[in-house]
Amino acid sequence: xxxxxxxxxxxxxxxxxxxxxxxxxxxxxxxxxxxxxxxxxxxxxxxxxxxxxxxxxxxxxxxxxxxxxxxxxxxxxxxxxxxxxxxxxxxx
Length: 92
Hints:
Elements: H1 2-20, E1 25-26, H2 36-51, E2 53-59, E3 67-72, E4 77-79
Antiparallel strand pairs: 1-2, 2-3, 3-4
């Protein structure tokens, strides 16, 4: 299930790149000590079991920060929360 979610996010990025221009890519958070893809997939599965939701972030050119995408499998809805985080290191 987690691998299918990652594929869906990549397809979404490709579609958005086609519609808005290049520069849309999934955000892959990396932690010290490795872990990589297996750790990310385990986190998706844990979130799915605990909350019934899966989420991902995509980076878009000229956006203030990553855009969070969430799918709620209990309700069958997807959403993009409207909160945006201010990028660190810029501005004040």
